[in-house]
Amino acid sequence: MLIETLKGTGVALVTPFKKDKSIDFTALENLIDIQIAGGLDYIVTLGTTGESVVLSEQEKVEVFNCTVKKVNGRLPIVIGIGGNNTAEVIKSFNKFDLTKVVAILSVTPYYNKPSQEGLFQHYVALADAAPKPIILYNVPGRTGRNMNAATTLRLANHPNIAGIKEAGPEMAQIIDILKDRPSDFLVVSGDDEIVMAQIACGADGVISVAANAFPKPFSDMIRFAMVGDFSMSKRINDLLVEGYTYMYEENNPSGIKAFMFEQGMIENELRLPLVPVSAPLQQKIHDYLQRYISL
């Protein structure tokens, strides 16, 4: 079952750019090796953190193909394919060779603010057409519309909808989903800052931003939480809490890229309309990492 395959820590992988804003495929390959060596459980490509909205259709295919080739079966891969035009999302399924992925992560439609029934019908249409299981992705802070627990649970009965990445506004919402979900329905967090508490309530793990910069400590923290050792999990999480604050202070993925630049993983480059974090925040990140290394 997919719920067993995708338990633990998935990383929402960034897309590195060169100074000329072209994709840095060498850096991408190096990042994949770093994530695998750090103990991650699976990789998510072409998500929000991967700046998929500023990639051309051809670039998306190239990033995806590079990721699949470099992973080479070492970890499961989830691909992000979403949008606010249902018919176009369905067409996009055919642009990738999805034989090597385990699931499609699809964000709720943004900007046009569909009703709960509209969200339900959108996902049913995707699931009916998709060649791989759909993972719902609720992130109202970005999309402008919250998909409530009742709609999620209604969708959970579809045979080709395997789970949800829940980044809703309140803990109560994920608790409601966890209380009544089918036993084979995956529920993972979309919020690094509170995932430990969500795992205590029954969540199956996280699709993480922070894991890009801290793959081993973050995945260890999740692993301890998943077996109920919250003392050890908290010990690691306490070291990361200040980092989370800086990571999300101005923008994601600007924040995580600032961390990774300081660590020598990538250039500090984004595509407009995103820009690097401010100089004062970059200094905070630098100072935090200097302290973190000594801990």
Strand content: 5-15%
From the N-terminal CA to the C-terminal CA, the straight-line distance is: 39 Å
SSE class: alpha/beta
Overall residue-averaged pLDDT value: 97
| Major β-sheet annotation | 8 strands, parallel
The domain tally reads: 1
Number of helices: 13
Q: What oligomerization state is this entry in?
A: single chain
Top-tier CATH class: Alpha Beta
Tell how many strands the DSSP assignment holds.
Answer: 8
CATH topology: TIM Barrel
- The helix/strand series, from N terminus to C terminus, equals HEHEHEHEHEHHEHEHEHHHH
CATH architecture: Alpha-Beta Barrel
Radius of gyration: 18 Å
The rough form would be described as globular
Sequence stretches where pLDDT stays below 50 over 5 or more residues: none
CATH superfamily: Aldolase class I
Fraction of residues in helices?
40-55%
Spatial sequence of strands, sheet with the most strands: 7-6-5-4-3-2-1-8
List keywords for this structure.
46% helix; 295 residues; TIM Barrel; alpha/beta; single chain; 8-stranded parallel sheet
